[in-house]
Write a structure and sequence with these properties.
Blueprint: E1 10-12, E2 17-20, E3 27-31, E4 37-42, E5 48-52, E6 58-62, E7 69-77, E8 83-90
Antiparallel strand pairs: 1-2, 2-3, 3-6, 4-5, 4-7, 7-8
């Protein structure tokens, strides 16, 4: 399954999870089958800046109060413990 996209938007095809838009100016969404995941947003130093409510199939995340820079989306599958980390870039 060779998926190519014209942007840096992240699509985890094996889990049907998408993270759009990336980079973001402050608001982005995670959508797909996220109910089986614990999702945290971390700053570049690894500190958790936000924990996501995963009871919905799509969640909008606001980074407006945070400085620009690189953040990480940490998703842990609660069924098998698999860890997935994706980068998200907040720009001006």
């Amino acid at each position: 399954n060779n998926m190519t996209t014209a942007s840096d938007d992240v699509i985890l095809s094996e889990n049907c999870i998408s993270i759009l838009p990336n980079p973001t100016t402050g608001v982005f969404s995670i959508s797909g089958d996220i109910s089986a995941y614990t999702i945290d947003i971390l700053d570049a130093s690894g500190a958790v800046v936000q924990t996501i409510d995963n009871s919905l199939s799509k969640v909008n995340i606001t980074l407006n109060t945070l400085p620009t820079g690189l953040y990480f989306i940490r998703m842990i599958n609660t069924l098998n413990g698999q860890l997935t980390v994706e980068k998200i870039l907040k720009t001006e």
